[in-house]
Amino acid sequence: MATARARLYGLLAATFDGETETTAAALDRGAFVTVADVFPIDIETADLRGDGHDADSLAIGYDNLFVVPGTHYVPPFASAHAADPSEAFESDSRYHTAGEAGELLGDPAADMAQLYAAAGFSPERGDDIPDHVAACFEFMRALCEREATLLEGGGSESNLDAVRELQTRALSQLGWIDRFEEAVASRDSVEGVFAAIARLARTFTAWDAQDVAHADEQPSETTPA
Description:
- This protein is mostly helical.
- The chain has helices at about 1-15, 20-30, 30-35, 55-65, 105-120, 135-155, 155-170, 175-185, 195-215.
- It starts with a helix and ends in an 8-residue tail after the last helix.
């Protein structure tokens, strides 16, 4: 399961980092639909199929949603979706006002940066924005890969617990994905591909948070019988 989770987090990280060739290939082979079908709730999958979605068209949609400020723009980082402003933050954007929520590099960015440091992780995705959704998913991919390695190699219970604790802390920072998904759904109303993927990401992270919490309550698979 840890390996499967790592693969999905990696795919989500690539998607929200603008790697549209990867996204197009995943749509073409039905990877998103396969994942959506395992969840215990209904997820509309019509927009998660490959018909008519190539890398170039996805790149245009991605830029309109997540890169170029405008009527369809949705900031892809947690600080912009915070309910309350941080006490101090840095922003040179004319689209945000100091003292209001919707900032750049606010408290969520600082919190994620601390988690990365604790794990010895340096994100390669997310344009050097620690709370960028692509960086967050890249971090979860790395943690799931660590868990898989420990489980396959008979790692110690303490090391496994430490990785799962980091996963729990990281997932606890992803509540903003709900607001992010709602914003994407309202702005990606024509093609709907990224809205559907955001919905999948929201559902998966919520499920994963519950599953990791449940795993923490169970005896480790590495514990001798």
